[in-house]
Predict the structure.
Amino acid sequence: MATKKKSLGMLILQIALGCFLLAFGILTLQLDKGVLGKFQAGVTGNEVAIAVNKLLKGDAANIVIILLGICEIISGAGLLVSLFTSLGKAASIFNLVVLIAWIVVIVVIDVMGPFGLLNGAFESTWTFLFFLKTFAMHMLVLGAILTVNHKN
């Protein structure tokens, strides 16, 4: 284990957040292309790729999606590795990068994305509930990032 003693709840939160960010980053890198990408967009809601493609087109969209996916993968892996060894300043940098990236994800998806605040969140009960579910999930992850970062 890493040198700092953690509560069981914090350990579980860090493992869950690390796994989530790692998986979310990998899914983000799928770019919603091909059968697998379309399946993931429908089932897991690869909102990052969908929202970025709504805002940007072509290579610019792909670059932003790839950068966000890489940040999520590095951060998730960093959180998991830091369970076993101290990463020192590298952990702080990973955590800051993912915090900034996640805030960007919230703005891009929940404010500007499809069914976001600026694009139809209040059109119907269904769209509002979809927005509320997505926003709540993103805020839960943001809270976990802030909590894990504060305790590390």
Remarks:
- The chain has a mean pLDDT of 80.
